[in-house]
Structures are given as C-alpha cells and as structure tokens.
Write a structure and sequence with these properties.
mainly alpha; globular; transferase; Phytoene/squalene synthase family protein; Trans_IPPS_bact-type; squalene synthase [NAD(P)H] activity; geranylgeranyl diphosphate synthase activity
Length: about 280
C-alpha cells in the first residue's frame, strides 16, 4: 500500500498533467489545503476520464460509484491513491458528500444525452459536472464559513464549465456532443452541419458571445463573495477565477477558432494575472 504522501503526490501529478491553470492557482495554498485540492481534482478527473476515454464507460462509472459509496461507508480501497488521499481529506475537512455524488450524476448525463435544448439545460448540466467542484472545494478553502459561500462557489464552477464548452466546441463535436443550446442555434441560424464543418461565421460568433456573456455574469456572482474567503485561500480562488475567465479572451484573440485550435492562457499571462490581484 502506498503511503499518504505518495498518494498525494500521485494526485499532484494528475492535476499538473491535466490542468496547469488549477495547479498554478492553488499552488499558493498552505500544504494541507493544497494537497486536498489535488485529491479532489483527481476524483473529478477519474470520473471525467471514465466517461470520455473508458472502454466500457457505462459499467466503469457504476463500478466507480460503488467504490465511492464504499468509501463513504468507511471502506476505502486502499490500493488506489485517490481513495488514500481522499480518506485523509474527509478526515480533516467537513466535506459535502452530495457534491461528489452530483458530480458522478453529471458525468453519467454525458452517456445518455448529447444535445441540449435551452441555456437553462446547459447550466444545469454545467452545475452537475463543475458547479459541484466548487461545493467540493469550499469546505477545504473556507472551513469556517463555507456554507455562506455556496452560491458563489456554484456560480464559479458553472462559469468555468460554460467556458470549457465555449473553448471545446470542436473537440466535443468529434464525440458527437453539442453543448450549444438548440434554441440559441435556431435564434442565430447556426446549423449542426456548420459546426461539423468548423465554420466560424458571424452568426456563430454572436451565439458564442451570448453564451460568453452568461459565463461573465456567473463569474461576477462568484467575485462578489471572494473577499469572504480566508486570506490563505482568497488569492488562489481569485487567481483560478481570473485565469479561467481569461480563456474567453484567448478564444477571441484566436478569431473564435474553437474547431482546429485550442485556446489557452500562456504562462506569462497567468503570471501577469496573479501579479495584478
């Protein structure tokens, strides 16, 4: 069995590999909180990878959920780093179990649904797969007052997922998924065929910007409560929020090419954002 420190380091490797934005922002946290973020991210990544890359995702996600339910009953699989690390996190912090279960529920949605009719449906999905992450992190980031930060935490996670959707249109259509709501596609006369062909039209840009404006509204809701985080978490949360929001401008700078070019925030831009906080 791996030691606790080895388990946390495995989780650290995962966050470094898959999300340099989160890794960079939360590297500013004191050690116990920082390691907890690594473990929570690894949980989320594990579920996401099952759905997107699993050989048998339907059965694999059921098996993972059973493992988590056993974990909640204090029977963790101590052969896996994720459960070793999370066991320590659940011992140290008053974790929100429902948020973890909701995350799994949201990932299951990708197995049965690949089109969305309205922005409200997109936001509901975004809550389940990402707003939940905000709720998972809150007891770690703000142990003494996390309940009063619930709205802002959910808003931030949801805004980040809408940002992901707007960045990853091309990747998603390759998996036969369209998260752009059908009613907005109809409003701007953007067709599925145009998306499959990767056409950046004026109509597509208008649709993209309407969704981006909703993401911006949610970021603003999150920003309103950020000053209520304890000092040691305030800068990391602000950093993560501003760095993620900057992805929207990266897409704009790339002329809205979300089909053949992946937009990201450069290391230099991240440093600049952190310096301005």
């Amino acid at each position: 069995m791996k030691t606790l420190e080895e388990a946390y380091q495995d989780c650290h490797t995962i966050i470094n590999r898959h999300s340099k934005t989160f890794s960079k922002a939360f590297s500013l946290l004191p050690s116990p909180k920082r390691k907890a973020v690594w473990a929570i991210y690894s949980f989320c990544r594990s579920v996401d990878d099952i759905v997107d890359e699993g050989d048998d995702p339907e059965n694999e996600i059921i098996a993972f959920e059973k493992e988590f339910l056993l974990f909640l009953e204090n029977h963790p699989n101590l052969e896996k780093s994720i459960w070793i690390a999370l066991h320590d996190v659940f011992q140290r912090f008053s974790m929100n179990q429902d948020a973890f279960l909701d995350m799994i529920k949201g990932q299951k949605m990708d197995l049965v649904k690949n089109r969305y009719q309205t922005m409200a449906e997109v936001e509901e999905y975004s809550y389940y797969v990402a707003g939940t992450v905000g709720l998972m992190l809150l007891p770690v980031l703000a142990p003494d007052n996390h309940l009063r930060l619930t709205e802002g935490g959910k808003a931030l996670g949801t805004a980040m997922q809408i940002t992901n959707i707007l960045r990853d249109v091309g990747e998603d259509i390759e998996r036969n998924r369209i998260y752009l709501p059908m009613d907005l596609m109809d409003k701007y006369q953007v067709t599925e065929e145009q998306i499959r062909e990767g056409k950046v039209t004026k109509s597509f840009i208008l649709l993209w910007e309407e969704m981006a404006s909703r993401a911006e509204e949610l970021y603003q809701i999150a920003f309103q409560s950020i000053d209520h985080y304890p000092l040691d978490a305030r800068l990391p949360v602000k950093g993560a929020a501003y760095m993620y929001r900057a992805i929207l401008n990266s897409v704009r700078e790339n002329q809205y090419n979300v089909f053949t070019q992946r937009s990201y925030v450069t290391k230099e831009e991240k440093q600049k954002i952190l310096a301005q906080l």
